Amino acid sequence: MTAVRKPARTVAKNRPDATKRAPPAGRNRRGGKASRAAAGDDTKITALKLRPAKLTPDMAAYFKLCEEKLGFVPNVLKAFAFDMAKLEAFVAYRNDLMQGESGLTKLEREMIATAVSAQNQCYYCLTAHGASVRYLSGDPVLGELMVMNYRAARLDQRQRAMLDFAVKLTVEPWMVEEADRARLRRLGFSDRDIWDIAAVAAFYNMTNRLTSATDMRPNSQYHAQARSPRAHID
Amino acid sequence: MTAVRKPARTVAKNRPDATKRAPPAGRNRRGGKASRAAAGDDTKITALKLRPAKLTPDMAAYFKLCEEKLGFVPNVLKAFAFDMAKLEAFVAYRNDLMQGESGLTKLEREMIATAVSAQNQCYYCLTAHGASVRYLSGDPVLGELMVMNYRAARLDQRQRAMLDFAVKLTVEPWMVEEADRARLRRLGFSDRDIWDIAAVAAFYNMTNRLTSATDMRPNSQYHAQARSPRAHID
Amino acid sequence: MTAVRKPARTVAKNRPDATKRAPPAGRNRRGGKASRAAAGDDTKITALKLRPAKLTPDMAAYFKLCEEKLGFVPNVLKAFAFDMAKLEAFVAYRNDLMQGESGLTKLEREMIATAVSAQNQCYYCLTAHGASVRYLSGDPVLGELMVMNYRAARLDQRQRAMLDFAVKLTVEPWMVEEADRARLRRLGFSDRDIWDIAAVAAFYNMTNRLTSATDMRPNSQYHAQARSPRAHID
Amino acid sequence: MTAVRKPARTVAKNRPDATKRAPPAGRNRRGGKASRAAAGDDTKITALKLRPAKLTPDMAAYFKLCEEKLGFVPNVLKAFAFDMAKLEAFVAYRNDLMQGESGLTKLEREMIATAVSAQNQCYYCLTAHGASVRYLSGDPVLGELMVMNYRAARLDQRQRAMLDFAVKLTVEPWMVEEADRARLRRLGFSDRDIWDIAAVAAFYNMTNRLTSATDMRPNSQYHAQARSPRAHID
Amino acid sequence: MTAVRKPARTVAKNRPDATKRAPPAGRNRRGGKASRAAAGDDTKITALKLRPAKLTPDMAAYFKLCEEKLGFVPNVLKAFAFDMAKLEAFVAYRNDLMQGESGLTKLEREMIATAVSAQNQCYYCLTAHGASVRYLSGDPVLGELMVMNYRAARLDQRQRAMLDFAVKLTVEPWMVEEADRARLRRLGFSDRDIWDIAAVAAFYNMTNRLTSATDMRPNSQYHAQARSPRAHID
Amino acid sequence: MTAVRKPARTVAKNRPDATKRAPPAGRNRRGGKASRAAAGDDTKITALKLRPAKLTPDMAAYFKLCEEKLGFVPNVLKAFAFDMAKLEAFVAYRNDLMQGESGLTKLEREMIATAVSAQNQCYYCLTAHGASVRYLSGDPVLGELMVMNYRAARLDQRQRAMLDFAVKLTVEPWMVEEADRARLRRLGFSDRDIWDIAAVAAFYNMTNRLTSATDMRPNSQYHAQARSPRAHID
Hints:
globular, 64% helix
């Protein structure tokens, strides 16, 4: 299943710093006083009892890759793993969207994901994608801004319009009209870029709701990731 | 790609009545006064100019099946057809969700899709899924109720709770908590059913936004479909 | 009571097609599987038990006219018929507004009625006025658009502004100011036209609430009315 | 036109104190510094230029009665006076609703009118109906509470539920269901009372929007009316 | 404590008319039928049972000054008097803000206080600050407009923009950006004026919530204050 | 000025870890690639140009204490420093509220501050108080939960009710009533505790708006503070 495997590799090489940071963070947690708030994060990924299915070879390989490169398998994948057809479809859709070719950088896609998730107050997605923004930008403050209020970030006009479109589409999709698309075009976005902005914003409106509906808990490793400023990656 | 082909066949046998009704409706339209409101439906599927890619054999077969069985290829598929990876991922995800095994009937999944789309005032999805509810239930009024205000429908407690959950998840996902899941369980939904309710509601929160962002126009054939009461199908 | 009788006649000649379509629809319903969603529509018009009063001669004549020309007496009239003063006052106000002289066409007034009712998710009014838009325009799609999201309709600037004003007045009446009226004037609306737009929007904000408060059920005949494209009437 | 004349008489005897207070208030205004905020109240009733029509004898008599008993003709009547059919229909509907027989006292109907108008932030209706609440209750504070936040008033359970229903119907009519009606019935309201609560709430949702749309200005005499505590009237 | 004493003096000379009006109003209340709505205003200031602390000499002097000049101690001060540190801090902050040097007049600050309180439907603050607007402006109608809908007041562009900023900051603070500040600057506000507009709007967002949380009751004397037009004071 | 000095000392001993972390974080920032998002944080604290006044001896001592103990003077203090009366009043009010005696722990007060700020999407306050929650709890995840969606935190019933009250008071203060207070009492909160919950929630509704209105930027040191789990402090 090429479509899935290729993005998987992209994810794989994506997070050298996650790989390094995760273990000590893990050790600290277990060694110190258990956090009340995070209690249960590791043992219970969602509020639903769904028996894990046997991983297909493709998915087993993908999970292994995640372990090696991220230090963990993102909980959203484990949550889908009760049904291989669902897991494969989700991974294929998600990886094409976030890792595939696009006029938007990966960082920009993660910025959209995070700003959308903030509107929906989604704990899982804010945690995971806030970490991605910090990691890809090398700018921890940018991650916080996407979580807290993207309007407070000092963005150029183009990125600001991109997020305004994504957030309007999240909050009042029925109000999006030609004038909104025209503004994006004036700032240099192609019609394909507009599709991609919409598709990413739309996708996280989906995952925000799936994770909220199931009380999905993010892997605790995300919290400490990429908290120091560093070089820009994307 | 089995995952895609199988659901496609399910769709195929799904709409005998659509197949029969569509052509006369088409003739009427062209023969009579062109509708101002619908003008452009046939020639421009979205507001974005995206060049169609060459269909993969799988997708070509799927489109052909749609033509044969529905009398048309749903515009959302044509809209995705600028990129085969995106189209295949969308079809796989969508067909597993809406046609795959579930404790929810297909009609129930379409009811969720429509009630969610009503919250988001999504013209495309209300048109397509309102038609599906009419078709699968054999009850044209039920389709209208899902579009207009699902709370006015005379549903049993179980279906009402299912839609309340889906709509709350749509409107204020951050407020969904254990009490909401507990209510569904008390009414007989399994944890897997809860996943499915959430997954369908979440998915249409995605497509509502993708179609609104791109001003996607529904195939005009939907409007006249299944407007007379008939036997229940699902 | 001239004011009432005259509009009554206008209604009367208004719906030849309703007259013809209603009986078969009625037969189908009774002959086939009873629709669960619509069950009770015919036997219980509202959730309130209010004993019908004896119709005054004026009102008896008006109901008879409705039967002859529409094939039924609209349920809202039956709902008011527990008190003749209330019924007469409602009919007089409503008919002057919707059938009397105005710079707005009857179709435009029905478009406003439907778009307003969509904001208030009013099942009764969406059903009845959506049917009127389909009938008067000869364009079934236009009726659907008013119900689903008027912003998706391809309207000229003038009609769009008319609906924007009506919807803003519905959703946040406290925000309507001189700039809103000025925009209507620039697009050719007279001050009298502005009154009429406001009066129609305001009236359906009233009826939407009266029907929602009482769970008023629309006559089932509306659903099938004017579902095929035909010549424009208004 | 009996229906109109009778309520008119009811209004007439209704406001001895208004009659007495209005003239000095008027004198003060003219004698002192012109109020900036109120400027134009007397010379321009709405933002629309609509030439007054010749009053019908019924309406002329009704206006005369208002002058004699209230000391002024309410501006909403003057605003409708460009068209006698509209004026008569409005007066008939309004007077039946607010002055006719009902299980609700006149004060209770005015409380609903004011609490509804507060949700819609309607300057005209809050001014006129706040004055009515003060006058009919003899309790100036009750008028202020209806304007500012009816939830802060120390009402009995029955009146509180009445206002809760009216306000829910105003703010989210699509959410009103059998449970809401059942609560009213449990507190002693008959089905007819429920109709009246709904009808009054619905009507002021209409007038709030008509006056907001036209920037209608209340007669300045209302402001000083019934500002001292006195005996209860209704 | 100079900071507190000086504003106290400013308050003191501020309300000659309050001083005169309050006693008769008090007498009327006690002599006549007890107002149901206002019942308990005098005996129970908030819903919380908090034992009054011994007033510090500064606060005792300040309360005495209020009695002499206003005819009463505002209930918000009594509510804070369970803890002298809290009372002194509140008085110091409040008096500096509302009585201290500013490019905004005292009337303008009270207009902001009232318009903000209207958004939050705060009974206590609308009562107290609506009275202040009436008193300081000598225009009873202006007070009502700030309570009911400030947009209906005929304000100059500068004061309108000031209130628009304060209300936006109240309703959607996260949307306030440089463009909002730029608009104020264009209309002549200095950066210090912008701070003051924001600080007053922000402060009443605090007090609105503290009084709502505790069901704080305004002194009944406010209601009758400054109901007749008179000279402008501020 | 004892009231100010004492809380200042409390702050002082409060943040040993901040003191240690801040300097390296500062060095990293300056040594590495400048963060685009954070650019200007250090040079421009707000969007308003307000000339700093000369610090009074009390305030100079307080700023010095902050430097020594926190490693920096919180920007909100520098923002107020254009006027010593305002700065002193703010510090007195704030320190009494957050550092003074209370039935709520300091951590609980910071949890309220953060959950309130999340509703208002306030970048400054989320940054500063999210850091405080992390620091005082020793649980970095708890800080993130308060920022992202406090409902996802695994809190006991008492703390959950405390935050529910604070957030309701933030979002719809006009709806807070006796039932809300009664729920807090049932869970063990005293009337004084209820005052404190309300006062903290109200205060951050003030500061959220003051910082949003002025685009106040948090000290960049907050972002990296207390990101590792450690012992509980409060």
